[in-house]
Design brief:
The protein has about 550 residues and is an all-alpha fold. The protein has two domains: about 375 residues, no CATH class; about 140 residues, Tetratricopeptide repeat domain (Serine Threonine Protein Phosphatase 5, Tetratricopeptide repeat, Alpha Horseshoe), CATH 1.25.40.10. About 70% of the residues lie in helices and about 0% in strands. The chain has 27 helices and three strands. A three-stranded antiparallel beta sheet has the order 1-3-2. Helix 7 packs parallel to helix 18, helix 11 runs antiparallel to helix 16 and helix 20 packs antiparallel against helix 21. The protein starts with a helix and ends in a 19-residue tail after the last helix. The C terminus is likely disordered.
Length: about 550
Amino acid sequence: MVNFLLQYRLPLIAIVLITVGVYLPVFGFDFVNFDDPQLVYENPFIQNFSLKIFTTYDPELYIPLTLLSYQVEHAIFGLNPAAFHLTNVLLHIANAVMVFMVLLKLKRNSSSYLLPFIGALLFAVHPLHTEAVVWVSARKDLLSGFFFLLSLLLYMHKRRLIFWSIGAFVLALLSKVTAITLIPVLLLVDWRDTKRFTVRSVIEKWPYIFLGIVFAIIAYIGKTSNLTAFSAVEFALLACKSIAFYVQKLFVPSDLYVLYLWKGFIYLLSPSIALTVLLCIAIGITLWISYRRSSDVLFGLAFFCITLAPSLLTFSKAGHIYFASDRYAYIPSIGIIFLLVLLLSRCVNSRRCQIITAVSGLCVVSVFAVMARAQSAIWHDSPTLYQHVLAHDPESYIALNNLGVLMLENHQYEDALWHLERAASVKEDYTSAMLNMGVAHYYLGNLEEAEEVTARVTVLRPSMLKGWFSLGWIYEQEGKYEEALQAFATALEIDDTDPQVHWHIGHVYGKQGKYKAGLDAYRKAMALDPAYEKQLETVDALMVPGS
């Protein structure tokens, strides 16, 4: 390792300095209320070291090592956003360095590090990677990617470090289960060396396969609803749309934003889907041809497709359809970058060609670096994030809802109501926006409207605890105590372990003068959550999670 650092010190220093230069402003950024509350600054598991992180989802991904990294940061720095952003940037730098090392290992018959260096710089400054680097909640992609690449590098060292490779694979899986794609990637490495798949190669991977099966079961438990959200045809069409999106943005990374929502029907003749199907067919044909003619082309293209595959199971989240997310291209992009390096290596056969390639590559890197720095600025704070989404998609109902919630928190009730009503008009069954509309109406003194819109939620989603709780809360504020108790009772039929419901039942009994019953309800709430001994919880405006 020391020899490697000395031999390649100049490109390594350049990778570090350029990456830091691009992402230096993020150290002044705040958290955003898009998953960051649930995962970090409002997560009780983060505030103290707790082994419960190994038995919980986030809510649908198993990421205990990622949560552990948040715990360590909180213990040392508290909830200082700069510390969390620093960790993300350091992980990205380490990943860029390992991409350089992987490309060096993959290239053939060349002593020059020029093309692997350009490839690593493209990875380091690509605007499509900005979301993974700047969003604190995307730590799981960075951390899993770090151990994925480390395990791959250790394996490629002539199998001498196989034990350490398996250990890194376990850490990758504990960071995010999508690291399971390392197994077919290792088989690709073997095939690239021998030009054939063998039973022995598969058997040798038994520790990886065993671990993969265990974590696949864990992942399936958290992702079952997503797997059943679409028909086979709809799934295939969305997959084509998603794959084509990432290919396009890797080459032309413009018009990037956070919420790529699919609105409307999913059908083949849709203009935004038909061409993507043709592109995916072309990719399939290229894979088949390269299987027979070029192991390098097959490796790069298959690496991209295999590592991207888990993201195709995440189209459906909390009742919404996302056809893509920038961070999902983080590791898959390495396959495309390898293909570019491969293509350029066939052109660099003279000193003149090397100079032209170096100048051209650095120009592209410079353009991407400027774009990545500008793209990172959208994560400065929550309002900036959602306003950027609305600038690209004015009908992004999630951005409208979450921006409305921010306005509620800032007591801008009229503006909040406008955004929330707009969100509900775009998606008529959007219950989160309706519940928040009820809160806005309440604070504006429109009690009848607050009651009406909240009651509509209980009709649309009768099994939604939040709907019944919110309706009970509004009845409580109106002095309709019996109606409030009925709504809270329905909420408890859905889930009798929610402390907030018991606490507000205590409020209502207290207002009715039924102090013994109220005290019993308070005790139930405090038994479920000791935090109620110190503070009174009120209904929170609902936020929509990302992934």
